Amino acid sequence: MELVSDPTCGEVDLSASAEELSRLASAVASGDGLLSSTLPPGGNVLAGVEVRDTSGPGVLLHLDSERHVLVISGDPAGRAVLARNLRAMAAAENGGHLHIDYFPGHFYLAEGSLPLVVNSPHGGMPSR
Fold first, then answer.
1. Which of 1, 67, 79, 85 has the largest count of CB atoms under 10 Å?
2. What is the pTM for the complete model shown?
3. Inside any domain, residue 125
4. What is the CATH number of the domain that holds 78?
5. How far is the C-alpha of 128 from the C-alpha of 118, rounded, in Å?
6. Is 59 helix (H, G, I), strand (E, B) or coil?
7. Number of domains in the chain
8. Is 128 a domain residue?
9. What is the pLDDT along the chain (128 residues), one digit of tens a residue?
10. C-alpha distances out from residue 28 to 50, 52, 87, 105, 123, Å
């Protein structure tokens, strides 16, 4: 799993194998987990993802800048939606990417969530 933070726009770019995305989805669904990046942290590369169960409302995606970790925290209902989206990207066989961006009234992301791009394990743009 590779996590790169873009300090200009605040976006995190996530690239992972189908197995790694599935493990992340399971951690998100359960509300507990710490997954490491395959690249050494430094510069804009993050060390990994930490998942926490909180009361919400919704899911908050933020950076722990001291530890260089993407933190995903939130209530079970919001985490379940995010987990389904991650599993769908892991299973997608035609490539593509998923933008997870907060906007006012978002049904599962909490205000203040940073944007996340999840890349398909099969490439950036859909092949069909």
1. 79
2. 0.91
3. no
4. 3.30.1360
5. 19
6. strand
7. 1
8. no
9. 999 999 888 899 999 999 999 999 999 999 999 999 988 777 899 999 999 999 979 999 999 989 999 999 999 999 999 999 999 999 988 878 999 999 999 999 999 999 999 998 887 654 44
10. 9, 8, 10, 22, 23
